[in-house]
Amino acid sequence: MNSYLESNSAFRQGENRDMITKPVFIVYGVSGSGKTTIGSALAKKMGVPFYDADDFHPESNIQKMAKGFPLNDTDRAPWLQDLANNISKWSSDQGAVLACSALKVSYRNILASVVPEAIKWIFLKGSYELIFERMQSRKDHFFTSEMLQSQFDALEVWKDGISVDIDQEIQRIVEEIESKLKMQKSEIGVIGLGVMGKSLATNILSKGFRLSVFNRHLAGKEEDIAKNFVSEHSNIPQGFDDLSLFVASLAQPRTILMMVNAGPAVDVVIEQLLPLLDENDCVIDGGNSHYKDTLTREAKLRKKGILYVGAGISGGEEGALYGPSIMPGGSKKGYENCGPFLEAIAAKDEKGNPCCSYISPDGAGHFVKMVHNGIEYAEMQLLAEIYHFLRFHLGNTPDAIHEIFTSWRSNSKDSYLLEITADILQKKEGEDFLIDKILDKAGQKGTGGWSTQAALTYGIPVSTISEAVMTRCLSAKKEERIEASKVYARSFSTVKTDPSIVEMLEQAYYAASLVNHAIGFDLMKQAAKENKWELNFSEIARIWTRGCIIRSDLMENLTLFFEDSNNTPLLMLSEVVETLDKSIDALTTVVSRGIGMKCPLPVLSAAANYLLNYTSETMSANMLQAQRDYFGAHTYQRVDKEEGVYFHTDWKNI
C-alpha cells in the first residue's frame, strides 16, 4: 500500500511526554541579605541540593567585581542563561534551592525562561542600614560594601512568590518561609485522590501550580489520604479532609477538579460544594460521567452562577501523571478559567501544542470521551481476535506474534494499543507466558455500552463498537461456555502460518480499524447535528494523537484528513477510499477463512459486513420493508416513484 494513509509514521509512544518537574526555590535579594545562609538552611530542611549563583560566574565576571567594578547586563546575560539551563536540569531531578541576587525583573525572566513552572521565588527583604552593617563584618568576599547602594538602586521587587524579613534568627526565617509557602492561596484544587486523582494532582504540582487536595475521611476505609499525599511531595500542596477548609484555601475565582466515581457520587459532592462556592467559581468533572448527566448539572449550576465543565480525560494512570488527552465541554466561560491548568497538564502533540481543546457546550466533552472509549473497546477486541487467530488457528507462539505485531508497528500502523499488546505477549511467569494464566472473562464499565445506547438514540450504526461490547458480555458467561463446549464438542482447524496470510491479516487489521474509527466519528457527527454542537473533528483527532489510549499513526493522519473536510464522512475521504479499495479483499478473505476454521472474529466480521453494506448501492432492506408492510402495514417507498411517497400493499392477495 503506497497511499499517504499507509506511509505516515508520525506516532511513536513516549514522544513529547512531559517530564515531572520538581520545584526550584530561588532565594533572591541584595548582597548581604543572607541568601547563601538561608538558602542552604532551607535546602537542608527540604532535603534538596543547594546552589549558590555566585559559583556559576565565569572568571571574567569574578575578576571584574574583585576590582570594584559592577557587572553590567552584558556581563550577566550568559551567566543567567547558564543558570536557567541548570534550573531545568535540577527541576527534572530532585529540585533545588538556588541563592541568586536576581535584582531585576528582566534577570528573573531569563532565569525562568526554560522551566517557569518549576520556580518558586523567595525575596529576602531588609533595610540598607541592617545589610550595610552585615557587609562590613564579612571577610574574603569579592563583593564590597561600597557596592551595596548600587544593588538597592537596581532592586526591582515584584509580587510573585513570597517575601521574608531578615531581621530575625535564621531558624525563624526558614520556618516563616515554610509557613508562607503553605499559606499561599492555591490556584487549583482536586477532590478525590484515587488512582487518577492522585496522578493528576501530581501532574498539576509538577507544572508549578499551587495546589490544594481534598479526600473524604472514612474510618477504617479512607484515612489520612490527603495528609499522606502532602507528605509525599516536597512542593508543598495543601491537604484537607474538611471540605469547607479546602474551598477556603483556594484563590478566587476558584477552580476545582472533581475526580470521583461517575454517577450519584458526583451529585453528592456538588451538593456539598454549592453552599461554599461563589459566582464564577469553576467546577470540573474529570470522571467518566454520562453526557446527559453533565448537561443537566451544567444547566443547574449555571442558574446559580457556577461554571461547570465536563471534561473527558483519557490516558489511564500513566497518562494522568505525564500528560493525558483532555476533552472539556460545558461552560465556555468555565473553560476560559480552567483552560490554562488543563492545557498545562495535558500531553503535547508533535508540534508541542496541548492535547486539550474546548469541545462544545453542554455534555459535548463527555460525549466525545464516551465515543473515544467505544472506539477503544473495538480496537482492543480487534487485536484480541487477531492474537487468538494467530495463536490457536495458525499455530504461532506468543513470541512469534510479538514479532508480527512489532513489524506492524514499524509499518505505519503504530498505536498505543498495538504496542502494549506486543509487550503483553513477552511477559512470562516462570517458564510460562502470563497471558495463558489470565481468565478469559472480561467486563465493561459502561462507556462502551453507552456508545451503543447513544447510537440507537441517534440512529447511527456502530457495528464494531456494539459487537465489542457484546463479545465482552458473552465472555462473562464463562461457566455456561464451558458446558456448551462439552455439549457441542466441536473441533477447529489449525494450519501452518505462511507470509501471505500474515500480510492479509495486517491489511485486514488496518481496514477494520479504519472502519471502526469512521463509525465513531459518524456517531459524533450525528450527535453534533442534533445537539447543535460545533465539533471540529480535525481538532478532536489532534487531541487524540498523544496521551489517550487510542493514540496512533492513524489518528495523526485523521487530523490532516479532517482539516478541510470536517463534514465529509471518513469513509468517503479519498485517502481512506484508496486504502480500503486495496484492503477490502484481505478483510473479507481473513474473515471467511477464520470463520471456516471455526475461529470467532466478531469485530473483524462486523467491520467487513459494515463496509460491504456501506459500499453497496442495493442492500437487503427492501425485503425488510416488505415484511414490515405485510404484518404491520408500515408502508414502504418505491424506487420508481418520487421519494417521500409511501405505499401499502395487500400482500395476501397474490
Automatic annotation (TrEMBL):
<dbReference type="GO" id="GO:0050661">
    <property type="term" value="F:NADP binding"/>
</dbReference>
<dbReference type="Pfam" id="PF00393">
    <property type="entry name" value="6PGD"/>
</dbReference>
<dbReference type="GO" id="GO:0006098">
    <property type="term" value="P:pentose-phosphate shunt"/>
</dbReference>
<dbReference type="InterPro" id="IPR006115">
    <property type="entry name" value="6PGDH_NADP-bd"/>
</dbReference>
<comment type="pathway">
    <text>Carbohydrate acid metabolism.</text>
</comment>
<dbReference type="InterPro" id="IPR027417">
    <property type="entry name" value="P-loop_NTPase"/>
</dbReference>
<keyword id="KW-0521">NADP</keyword>
<comment type="function">
    <text>Catalyzes the oxidative decarboxylation of 6-phosphogluconate to ribulose 5-phosphate and CO(2), with concomitant reduction of NADP to NADPH.</text>
</comment>
<comment type="pathway">
    <text>Carbohydrate degradation; pentose phosphate pathway; D-ribulose 5-phosphate from D-glucose 6-phosphate (oxidative stage): step 3/3.</text>
</comment>
<dbReference type="InterPro" id="IPR006001">
    <property type="entry name" value="Therm_gnt_kin"/>
</dbReference>
<keyword id="KW-0560">Oxidoreductase</keyword>
<keyword id="KW-0547">Nucleotide-binding</keyword>
<dbReference type="InterPro" id="IPR013328">
    <property type="entry name" value="6PGD_dom2"/>
</dbReference>
<comment type="similarity">
    <text>Belongs to the gluconokinase GntK/GntV family.</text>
</comment>
<dbReference type="InterPro" id="IPR008927">
    <property type="entry name" value="6-PGluconate_DH-like_C_sf"/>
</dbReference>
<keyword id="KW-0311">Gluconate utilization</keyword>
<keyword id="KW-0808">Transferase</keyword>
<dbReference type="InterPro" id="IPR006113">
    <property type="entry name" value="6PGDH_Gnd/GntZ"/>
</dbReference>
<dbReference type="InterPro" id="IPR031322">
    <property type="entry name" value="Shikimate/glucono_kinase"/>
</dbReference>
<keyword id="KW-0570">Pentose shunt</keyword>
<dbReference type="InterPro" id="IPR036291">
    <property type="entry name" value="NAD(P)-bd_dom_sf"/>
</dbReference>
<dbReference type="InterPro" id="IPR006114">
    <property type="entry name" value="6PGDH_C"/>
</dbReference>
<dbReference type="GO" id="GO:0019521">
    <property type="term" value="P:D-gluconate metabolic process"/>
</dbReference>
<dbReference type="GO" id="GO:0046316">
    <property type="term" value="F:gluconokinase activity"/>
</dbReference>
<dbReference type="GO" id="GO:0005524">
    <property type="term" value="F:ATP binding"/>
</dbReference>
<comment type="subunit">
    <text>Homodimer.</text>
</comment>
<protein>
    <recommendedName>
        <fullName>6-phosphogluconate dehydrogenase, decarboxylating</fullName>
        <ecNumber>1.1.1.44</ecNumber>
    </recommendedName>
</protein>
<dbReference type="GO" id="GO:0004616">
    <property type="term" value="F:phosphogluconate dehydrogenase (decarboxylating) activity"/>
</dbReference>
<dbReference type="Pfam" id="PF03446">
    <property type="entry name" value="NAD_binding_2"/>
</dbReference>
<comment type="similarity">
    <text>Belongs to the 6-phosphogluconate dehydrogenase family.</text>
</comment>
<dbReference type="InterPro" id="IPR006183">
    <property type="entry name" value="Pgluconate_DH"/>
</dbReference>
<dbReference type="InterPro" id="IPR006184">
    <property type="entry name" value="6PGdom_BS"/>
</dbReference>
<dbReference type="Pfam" id="PF01202">
    <property type="entry name" value="SKI"/>
</dbReference>
<feature type="domain" description="6-phosphogluconate dehydrogenase C-terminal">
    <location>
        <begin position="365"/>
        <end position="652"/>
    </location>
</feature>
<keyword id="KW-0418">Kinase</keyword>
<keyword id="KW-0067">ATP-binding</keyword>
